[in-house]
């Protein structure tokens, strides 16, 4: 799962240029996603800090807990490393970092950190690296906006697994219908699809790494599906339900999401109306993801379709968001984001219709922005006929 060393060399070269433009002496990565992006080291985030020092000039340095040394070696990490024994430690992670930095200490240095650095980490680093100015910067966030060519195959592999997870969730319901037994609960479907996706990772890859999770699933049906971020419950699927499977998967922590709405049994007129409106909005919005347009423009084009269908009161969220080493990251396909789409950006296209007391409808694909136009990485069918689960007793 490790990307070639040439990828990390290219990333560091571009980061050095970005730091130079911003008048920064280096960047200090403090989050699992930034550390993984810049070094290829994946770890479970706990109270034990991991710091990656990326100087504008010179060699990088990785500061890790001693108990992670073997794991870093197993991953083939080649960056020079120093370790500290424990947290909070007699010698802290921040003091270990400060002692290992090339002299002269931190005096006069302007060190970039991401906007997501915690207040506690910011204060601990400021105390340890005396005299340095810690400056929040978008240098790394900007690099992560557009995926490097080496990253795309991992996203494509995750897309295939994610589509298979949808089929597995549907299959569980169809098996219950065929057997004549009770239909599965929301939580049972969620456990099934997450297990399926995780099993696929371990079946295909010798060393499985991730920053947050391998596979995830939100499953909600009937009135529960009108809650966009509702968690799976113990409610059983029922004939006539509208069912949303909101699934995600990651290979080498390169995420995708693939979400579909199913109808359990013959859809009624109300279900057809809402489904077709959402399908049209998703198609129009996806095709609008053209290089040169802003996120705000694309979002408006997409959601205006729902408004034209008279469903503006049932819009609960934006069209989508960026996807990469995190399942949600910049840019944001929303009215307030004027980021200009560019080739290499990877976005979700997931407009939704949520009718209180009735159901929700959401279709989502992971979309790659290209010079030639948008390309869906996820490919599970989107038409209504393909998403009707038949055989209802």
From TrEMBL:
The keyword Isomerase does not apply. Residues 157-371 form the Peptidase M24 domain. One of its GO terms (molecular function) is aminopeptidase activity. Keywords: Aminopeptidase, Hydrolase, Protease. Pfam families: Creatinase_N, Peptidase_M24. InterPro entries: Creatin/AminoP/Spt16_N, Creatinase/aminopeptidase-like, Creatinase_N, Pept_M24, Peptidase_M24B. Gene3D superfamilies: Creatinase/methionine aminopeptidase superfamily, Creatinase/prolidase N-terminal domain. Residues 13-144 form the Creatinase N-terminal domain. SUPFAM superfamilies: Creatinase/aminopeptidase, Creatinase/prolidase N-terminal domain. It comes from the Bacteria. This is Aminopeptidase P family protein. The lineage of its organism: Bacteria, Bacillati, Actinomycetota, Actinomycetes, Micromonosporales.
């Amino acid at each position: 799962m490790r990307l070639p060393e040439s990828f990390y060399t290219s990333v560091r070269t571009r980061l050095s240029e970005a730091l130079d433009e911003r008048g920064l002496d280096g960047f200090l990565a403090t989050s699992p996603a930034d550390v993984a992006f810049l070094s290829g080291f994946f770890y479970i985030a706990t109270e034990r800090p991991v710091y990656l020092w990326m100087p504008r000039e010179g060699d990088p340095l990785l500061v890790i807990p001693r108990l992670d040394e073997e794991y870093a070696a197993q991953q083939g990490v080649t960056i020079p490393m120093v370790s500290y024994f424990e947290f909070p430690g007699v010698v802290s992670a921040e003091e270990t970092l400060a002692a290992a930095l090339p002299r002269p200490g931190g005096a006069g240095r302007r060190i970039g950190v991401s906007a997501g650095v915690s207040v506690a980490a910011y204060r601990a680093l400021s105390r340890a690296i005396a005299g340095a100015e810690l400056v929040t910067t978008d240098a790394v966030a900007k690099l992560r906006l557009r995926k490097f060519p080496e990253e795309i195959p991992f996203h494509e592999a995750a897309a295939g697994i994610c589509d298979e997870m949808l089929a597995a969730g549907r299959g569980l319901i169809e098996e219950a219908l065929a057997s004549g037994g009770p239909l599965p609960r929301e939580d049972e479907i969620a456990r099934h699809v997450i297990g399926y996706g995780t099993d696929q990772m371990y079946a295909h890859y010798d060393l499985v790494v991730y920053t947050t999770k391998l596979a995830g699933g939100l499953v909600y049906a009937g009135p529960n599906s009108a809650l966009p971020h509702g968690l799976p419950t113990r409610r059983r699927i029922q004939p006539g339900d509208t069912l949303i499977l909101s699934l995600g998967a990651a290979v080498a922590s390169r995420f995708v999401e693939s979400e579909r709405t199913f109808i359990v049994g013959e859809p009624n007129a109300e279900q057809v109306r809402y489904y077709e409106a959402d399908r049209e909005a998703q198609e129009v919005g996806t095709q609008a993801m053209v290089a040169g347009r802003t996120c705000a423009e694309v979002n408006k084009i997409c959601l205006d379709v729902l408004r034209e269908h008279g469903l503006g009161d049932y819009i609960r969220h934006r069209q989508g968001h960026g996807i990469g080493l995190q399942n949600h990251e910049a840019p944001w396909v929303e009215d307030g984001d004027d980021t200009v789409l560019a080739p290499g950006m990877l976005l979700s296209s997931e407009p939704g219709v949520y009718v209180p007391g009735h159901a929700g409808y959401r279709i989502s694909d992971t979309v790659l922005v290209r010079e030639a136009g948008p390309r869906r990485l996820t490919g599970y069918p989107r038409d209504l006929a393909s998403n009707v689960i038949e055989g209802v007793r």
